[in-house]
Amino acid sequence: MIRWGFITVVTVFIVVLLYGCTASPRFGSRDRPSDAPAPSEYRHRAAVLTIEGIASYYAHDFHGRQTANGEIYDMYAMTAAHKSFPFDTIIRINNLENDKSIIVRINDRGPFVEGRIIDLSLGAARKLDMIDSGITRVRLEVLEWGRN
């Protein structure tokens, strides 16, 4: 006959073992690398490169998934995807429709739709007030090139 104490110990061991095998939380907020200056420090910085075109945004389908630079995508962060700019490039985005402006960091690749120059996170798109339209005309101003 098996003792209840033994069964309890084995059950606790199995629970602890399985708990240790669970995945880490998928969602994290990492607006910028820890060594990057705060966006306010870029407010008056001159642009290194300026480009105009169409911006779009991406959100729910990618939230919690890995970005091209290895981070976990946080749709509420102030980040963006660009086809070729180095990761951690800091960009000022000016919405040419309403004159709103934000600063984002490149952490992903895209957009993969012809005619668009940048894909913004949902958080960035909200600050630019472009959620309803889904796309908007923007001016990108590269403030600092990333190191990668």
How would you characterize the overall build of this protein?
- With 148 residues, the protein is α/β, with parallel strands linked by helices.
- The protein has a domain at 47-144: Barwin-like endoglucanases, CATH 2.40.40.
- Helices cover 16% and strands 29% of the residues.
- The chain has helices at 4-20, 122-127; strands at 49-58, 79-81, 90-95, 101-108, 116-121, 135-144.
- It has a six-stranded mixed β-barrel with strand order 1-5-2-4-3-6.
- Strand 3 (90-95) and strand 4 form a beta hairpin.
- The longest helix is centred in the first third of the chain and has 17 residues, at 4-20.
- It is elongated, with a radius of gyration of 21 Å.
- The termini are far apart.
- Residues 24-35 have low confidence and may be disordered.
Strand and helix map with partners:
Elements: H1 4-20, E1 49-58, E2 79-81, E3 90-95, E4 101-108, E5 116-121, H2 122-127, E6 135-144
Parallel strand pairs: 1-5, 2-4
Antiparallel strand pairs: 1-6, 2-5, 3-4, 3-6
Mean of pLDDT: 84
Strand order of the largest sheet: 1-5-2-4-3-6
Quaternary state reads single chain
Q: State the CATH topology of one domain.
A: Barwin-like endoglucanases
The biggest beta sheet is recorded as: 6 strands, mixed, barrel
Number of DSSP-assigned strands: 6
Percentage beta strand? 25-35%
Compute the number of helices: 2
Helix- and strand-based class? alpha/beta
CATH top level label of one domain: Mainly Beta
Low-confidence stretches: 24-35
What is the second-level CATH architecture of one domain?
Answer: Beta Barrel
Q: Span from first to last CA?
A: 64 Å
Q: What is the fourth-level CATH superfamily of one domain?
A: RlpA-like domain
**Shape category:** elongated
SSE topology string: HEEEEEHE
Radius of gyration: 21 Å
- Helical percentage: 10-25%
